[in-house]
Amino acid sequence: ASKRAGKGRCTWFTAEFDANRAQTRDIDEDLRQALVHDQFSLLYQPLVDCDTARVACVEALLRWHRPDGKSIGPDVFVPVAEQSGLILPIGLWVLRRACMDALAWDEIMLSVNISAAQLRNAEFPVQLGQILEETGFDPGRLELEITETCLVLDPVVAERSLAMIRNFGVNVVLDDFGTGFASFGFLRQFRFEKLKIDRSLVEEAETDEASRAVMLSSVTVARAMRMKVTAEGVETEEQARMVRAAGCDQIQGWLYFKAMPAAEIGKYLNRPLDMASIYLGHSSAQA
Ligand code: C2E
Ligand code: MG
Ligand code: MG
Ligand code: MG
Asked: How do residues 146-176 score in pLDDT, each as one tens digit?
């Protein structure tokens, strides 16, 4: 209400601006403490293979539990950590933790989000190599998810870092495709192992014909380039049918799984999934 009332008034903008800056500073200081005091954790969201109806992969998703009892999502604190550079140590923590957790799930892939700042850090590939060596995690089972921001900001550096990462045998995935300006040109230039179609595109494709055309052609192009394709944020049966018909290889979304603690992953491995088998048409049972 106060927002509306103050709209257009200079004093309001100034106050708002200062408040934001102060808040950013506060979050940043708290994030430093969070690393020291072990307030981060990882959840894992399974990705379901459309053909086998089994878990093919898990994506590590970062959580921050503040001492005041509140949990803050990565959409809020990752951008702040990127600005201050704190994302570098946080990102290394994520990689090491995820590789250690995923040692136990030896038949599936592990996907880890990497921010633009990490990819641009010249030391990153070396640090990645060290983590792989320390943990003994198989690089062929690791996927690093990057966004187009990494590529747009500094394509030359990105290309060099990606080449080094690939030398380890690690897979590179383009995340959130269909939201910004990532184009087919990017796909040709960087040759990702996998493309993730963003939730917003999946959602729009259900009702909007033009969006459906974009999604369909993206899947076709990606597959012709031998990339795997994951549909993100699938929440309904109808969406699952649609992305499967479009040719997606994997489905990630609350229809099947929300992100969960590492300890719960084991029980979904090594067998086809009941709920997936219903929605993906592997069973004659109807919900
Ligand atoms: P993302 O990489 O695109 O991850 C998918 C996000 O969509 C996750 O949100 C996940 O919980 C959510 N999601 C999955 N399925 C559904 C669904 O069916 N419906 C809806 N509404 N949402 C769904 P989360 O965990 O809040 O993460 C948000 C973003 O924060 C991630 O988007 C990623 O960009 C970033 N992030 C998360 N963990 C890390 C990390 O360790 N490092 C970095 N640099 N970024 C991270
Ligand atoms: Mg991701
Ligand atoms: Mg994504
Ligand atoms: Mg996303």
From this structure: 998 888 888 888 899 999 999 999 999 999 9
Which residue has its alpha carbon closest to ligand 1 atom 37? 61
Under 8 Å between Cβ of 237 and 18 = no
Q: Which atom of ligand 1 is nearest to the CA of 234?
A: 18
Q: Which two tokens stand for residue 127?
A: 């640090």
Distance separating alpha carbons of residues 100 and 259, to the nearest angstrom: 18
**22 C-alpha to ligand 4 centroid (Å):** 27
Residue minimizing CA distance to atom 36 of ligand 1: 74
The answer, yes or no, to whether ipTM is higher than 0.95 is yes
Q: What is the pLDDT of residues 226-273, one digit of tens each?
A: 999 999 999 999 999 999 999 999 999 999 999 999 999 999 998 888
Residue 47 vs residues 91, 139, 220, 253: alpha-carbon distances, Å: 22, 19, 20, 8
113 lines ligand 1 (CB under 6 A): yes
Contacts of 38 (CB under 8 A, 6+ apart): none
**pLDDT tens readout for residues 113-153:** 999 999 999 999 999 999 999 999 999 999 999 998 888 88
Which pLDDT score is estimated for 272? 80
**Ligand 1 atom with minimal separation from the 73 CA:** 26
Whole-structure pTM value: 0.91
